[in-house]
Specification:
By secondary structure, the protein is α+β, with helices and mostly antiparallel strands. Helix content is about 50%, strand content about 25%. The protein has helices spanning about 1-40, 40-60, 70-80, 100-140, 145-165, 225-235, 280-290, and strands at about 170-175, 180-195, 200-205, 210-215, 240-245, 245-255, 255-265, 270-280, 295-300. A hairpin with a 6-residue loop joins strand 2 (about 180-195) and strand 3 (about 200-205).
Length: about 300
């Protein structure tokens, strides 16, 4: 009888240990998944953030206080550019405790929120400077400017609606933008992504997560190929930077992100293709860049 009781006690203890270990493993797996979910957001956030910082620096370097109706817009942009946050440290998500995994996740979430907020601040600064440039160029009450604004609004509504319908759809072939006069050949494997404005187009490669972003503007800041080239050369870890006629191209690294830019700068407009991808997929992504870049052209 005593032996039976002892056996039952041992079985109960063993079962309890197994149950505890199983429950603990489930909690650990759930914490690791939460950490990896946040980790997967880093690439997109840092790509958009790096592009916004580049746009802000280029605008600041090409604009003087005499070019804008409100010089304080430039001052705000310069001040905010002086507080660029560091690149996000990618978490390992391999710790053996729920507490450590949750700590990694929370730190990464804080860094992501910081970069998103900073990028949003810069985007607002950029729009304020561009508005001040237009006021100087056209005059805030100019009939010509009012007419242009009306046309732009109609164009924006149409383009925005079209983009939302295409978001997530596969695309390959030649894309032509008649409004800004450029075209590009996209290989198979890409999908549209909703753009941030009517003058922005985004596509992403579903295999490598390589992002193609094309920005077009009417060059209110009076950029030149030489000023664009100088801006490219200001980046750290530049692998190359070159200019030929109205075309400027270059590549550099932002942390673990590879940045490739090909830009056309004319008196009437700027059209910029920015390709971003992770160092980890460079062997595949470099081949895509070599294939896509020569097809990105503008109309004379």
């Amino acid at each position: 009888m005593i032996v039976v009781v002892l056996l039952l006690a041992v079985a109960a203890i063993t079962g309890g240990i197994i149950y505890w270990r199983t429950a603990s493993q489930k909690e650990l797996d759930a914490a690791r998944q939460r950490c990896n979910d946040v980790k997967s957001q880093i690439y997109d956030v840092q790509s958009d953030y790096a592009q916004t910082v580049r746009d802000a620096r280029e605008l600041l370097n090409s604009t003087s206080s005499n070019d804008v109706s409100d010089p304080s817009t430039l001052s705000r942009l310069k001040e905010d550019l002086g507080h660029v946050p560091d690149n996000i440290t990618t978490p390992n998500c391999s710790a053996d405790s729920v507490e450590a995994l949750d700590s990694e996740r929370e730190s990464t979430q804080d860094a992501l929120r910081n970069q998103r907020g900073y990028a949003k601040t810069l985007e607002t600064d950029i729009q304020d400077v561009k508005a001040a440039l237009r006021d100087t160029q056209y005059g805030s009450t100019s009939d010509d400017y009012s007419s242009d604004s009306s046309d732009s609004s109609n164009s924006s509504d149409s383009s925005d609606s079209s983009s939302r319908e295409l978001d997530g759809e596969a695309f390959s072939g030649t894309y032509t933008n008649d409004e800004y006069g450029y075209s590009i050949d996209i290989p198979s494997g890409f999908e549209w992504r909703d753009e941030q404005s009517d003058s922005v187009r985004k596509l992403i490669d579903t295999d490598t997560d390589m992002l193609i972003r094309i920005d077009a503007d009417d060059n209110p800041a009076g950029l030149t190929p030489q000023s664009a080239l100088a801006e490219l050369k200001n980046h750290d870890d530049v692998s190359f930077a070159t200019a030929k006629g109205s075309m400027v191209a270059g590549s550099w690294k932002e942390g673990s992100i590879i940045m490739y830019v090909k830009e056309y700068v004319t008196d009437s407009r700027t059209v910029t293709m920015t390709i971003t991808y992770s160092q980890s997929v460079r062997s595949k992504a470099d081949k895509l860049v070599e294939k896509i870049s020569p097809t990105f052209t503008i109309n004379d």
